[in-house]
Every structure is written in structure tokens, then in C-alpha cells.
Amino acid sequence: MADKLGNQEKKLDHPNLISIFLGIAVGILFGSLPIAIPGMPVPLKLGLAGGPLIVAILLGYYGPNFKLITYTTASANLMLREMGIALFLASVGLAAGRPFVDAILEGNGLLYAFLGLFITIIPLVVIGSIARKVYKMNYHSIVGMIAGATTDPPTLAYASTLTEKNVSAVAYSTVYPLAMFLRILSGQFVLLILWQYVS
Fold first, then answer.
1. Helices (H), 6-151
2. Are 55 and 19 in contact (CB under 8 A)?
3. Would you say 159 and 140 are in contact if contact means Cβ atoms under 8 Å apart?
4. What are the residue boundaries of the structural domains of the chain, listed by start?
């Protein structure tokens, strides 16, 4: 059995960086490709988040067919995940710090903040209740699904601390690509409708 399957602990402890960074590079290229939709003035792009996620899913499924080792050690996975979330939140905070405070303190900033709070909380409570009571989903899957539907990586990071299993990550990766695509598409549709209404 050891001759056929292997028995080398060092290889299992070694993270396969080639597959990881190949997936990131191809994902960035895929996310930057414009997807033209008839009737839309601007082509859609999945961006730096949607592209790598879709390519990672495809590599995880089809990678072994192309002799790519897509297994990643738990320690490398956790390090990349935590580092990515930290860099993401740091860049968002640095970019939005001063404009955010000015927007809250001036004009109708507080009103918009409270409206945004209700717009965010109400759909989450409704969908979470339906998923739990009607579809009998467990808590971790619900949190992952909601994090993916709202395209919210920090929520996924929180959900990952609640259990050692990857249930939340699977639910997140199932919903996230469609949510990202629909978010971009719906924004373009709203702008197109407003443009036609004004003109």
C-alpha cells in the first residue's frame, strides 16, 4: 500500500506553492477579462476577487487531470487566509478612513449610515430565518452562504473561527461567484435604466 500511495510525511507537510500562485495569477487575468453583454454599455469584469475564486474552484476540481497537486497544508491555508483578510481590511481602512469620517460628520451622513444598517440587516435576518426554518440548514452553512451573498470576506473569516470544518467556506464559494456577477450586473442595469430615463 505504501508503494502505491506513498508514505512520505515531508511531502504532505510541504505546501504546493506553484499551484497556489498559478491559480492566483490565472485568476487575476481571468478577473480582468471584459465580458461583453448585449445592451450593456460597459463590459463586466469579475475583478480581483471573483476571478481567482472561480479559477481556484476549477483548479481544485480539474487540477489533478493536468498533473497539478492542489493539496495545500492546513497551516499554509490558514496563513494565506489570515494574511489575505488582514491585507484586505488594512487597505480598505487606509483608503476609506478620512473620507468615511468626513462623510459621517457632514450633511446627511448619519442618516445614510442608519439606512445602510437597515438595508444590510433586514435581508440577512430574513434569509437566515428562511434558510434555518424552511431548508433546515446548519448555522455554519448559513453564515458562509450569507457571507458569499453579501460578498463579505471578513464574515467568512469569522465563520472559519467557529468550526474546524470547511462548511462555511464551501457555502461561501458556492454563492460568491454568482453574487459578485449579479452585483456588478445589477449596478450596470441601474445605471442603464437611469441613463435611459434621464435621456
1. 9-13, 17-32, 47-62, 74-105, 109-133, 139-149
2. no
3. yes
4. 1-72, 107-199
pLDDT tens for 120-172 read 899 999 999 999 999 999 999 999 999 999 988 888 888 888 887 889 989 99
| 3-state secondary structure at position 29 | helix
Task: Please report, for residues 67, 140, 144, the alpha-carbon distance to residue 167 in angstroms, rounded to integers and kept in the order given.
Answer: 27, 6, 7
Sign of CA dihedral 30, 35, 41, 46: negative
Give the dihedral sign, CA 5/10/12/14: negative
Reported pTM: 0.71
**Which residue in this structure is represented by grid cell 481590511?**
89
Alpha helices in 106-138 (DSSP H): 109-133
**Alpha-carbon distances of 39 from 81, 145, 172, rounded to whole Å:** 38, 31, 30
